[in-house]
Every structure is written in structure tokens, then in C-alpha cells.
């Protein structure tokens, strides 16, 4: 399922498994939104299995090493870490990274993009950092609203946009 980023989303995911004495502590929404960076250090050259808020550039600057980006993301090799399966990112609504939404379709893009006529805006982040923070809640909102399709204009650039685009590619209907 789409990763929960709020206490209420955690409750929805876990409600069938909780007893009346269990508690969910609410520390507010996730500050980052998307999951963490996963690095494979089992090879001679470390590589990123899953990009996250800690970017390739941050790692290289901090450690003064060159790090690769594992383009297979665990699909063609044995899964080495949790969170590498595409199913972790897919909402019930079909996600499209190309095309134009029509009446009743969901729409996610930076707020500088105009919402197409008839589309239902489920997120309009102002920055790529905010995009990462709200992406999963936007997917959940689309599912709560019963939307069948969500059209997304992916963010551009490096840094956290790489991680957002990784999650969007995994969630996308058209592969």
C-alpha cells in the first residue's frame, strides 16, 4: 500500500491489527514524506538502491566518495531491502505521468501549473521538498475520493526530485 505519512493514515493501515489498548502517537505529518535513501554497501562501490531525501550529492559531499545509482532498483536482482517493490507505492487509482486529465480525473503538479478544466487537484506543492512531503497523502486522497485516474506532472531537477520521480515511476500505470 501507499506509505502512511500521518497518524490517521497509520491507523487506517493498521486498524485491523490493533487492540483497544494499542495507541498511535501523533507527532504530526512526516517532515519528508517519501521514504529514506537505501544504500547498498555490499559491493566495492556503494550504490543507491532507493533514492530518498538524503541525495546522491549529499552522500558524495559528506563522505568524499563516488556513489552509484542502482538502476535496477531491486527488480532484476534479489531484493536486498524493504521498500523496493513497486507495490509499496501504488494507489488504487491509476497513475499517469503523461497525458491530460479529463473530467473527474485527479491531478498532481507544482502549484505553478494550472489545473486542467474538470480535473480534481489533489496536491499543489510549491517546492520539490513539499512535493515529496505531500505525494503519498495526495495518492491517499485520490483513493478516498474514489478517483480512478490521477495525472501527475513530475518535478524536474536533481536532489529530492530524483527520489520523487523514482516513486512516481513505480506508481505509474504505464510502464
Instruction: Please list the strands of the largest sheet in the order they lie side by side.
Output: 4-7-5-6
The number of E-state strands comes to: 7
* Biggest beta sheet summary: 4 strands, parallel
- In which range does the helix fraction lie? 25-40%
Tell me the Rg in angstroms: 17 Å
Summarize the structure.
This protein has 175 residues and is α/β, with parallel strands linked by helices. The protein has helices at 7-14, 56-63, 128-144, 160-171; strands at 38-40, 47-50, 68-69, 94-96, 106-108, 120-123, 149-152.
Question: What features would you describe in this structure?
Answer:
With 175 residues, this protein is of the alpha/beta class. It has four helices and seven strands; from the N terminus they run αββαββββαβα. The protein has helices spanning 7-14, 56-63, 128-144, 160-171, and strands spanning 38-40, 47-50, 68-69, 94-96, 106-108, 120-123, 149-152. Helix 3 packs parallel to helix 4. The longest helix is centred in the last third of the chain and has 17 residues, at 128-144. It starts with 6 loop residues before the first helix and ends with a helix.
Amino acid at each position: 500500500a501507499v506509505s502512511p505519512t500521518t497518524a490517521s493514515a497509520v491507523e487506517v493501515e493498521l486498524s485491523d491489527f490493533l487492540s483497544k489498548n494499542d495507541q498511535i502517537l501523533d507527532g504530526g505529518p512526516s517532515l519528508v514524506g517519501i521514504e529514506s535513501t537505501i544504500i547498498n554497501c555490499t559491493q566495492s562501490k556503494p550504490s543507491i538502491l532507493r533514492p530518498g531525501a538524503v541525495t546522491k550529492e549529499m552522500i558524495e559531499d559528506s563522505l568524499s566518495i563516488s556513489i552509484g545509482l542502482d538502476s535496477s532498483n531491486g527488480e532484476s536482482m534479489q531484493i536486498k531491502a524493504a521498500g523496493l517493490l513497486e507495490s509499496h507505492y501504488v494507489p488504487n487509482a491509476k497513475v499517469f505521468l503523461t497525458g491530460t486529465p479529463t473530467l473527474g480525473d485527479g491531478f498532481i503538479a507544482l502549484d505553478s501549473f494550472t489545473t486542467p478544466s474538470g480535473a480534481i487537484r489533489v496536491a499543489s506543492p510549491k517546492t520539490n521538498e513539499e512535493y515529496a512531503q505531500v505525494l503519498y497523502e495526495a495518492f491517499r486522497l485520490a483513493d478516498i475520493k474514489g478517483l480512478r485516474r490521477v495525472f501527475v506532472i513530475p518535478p524536474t531537477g536533481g536532489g529530492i526530485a530524483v527520489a520523487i520521480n523514482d516513486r512516481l515511476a513505480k506508481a505509474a500505470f504505464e510502464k
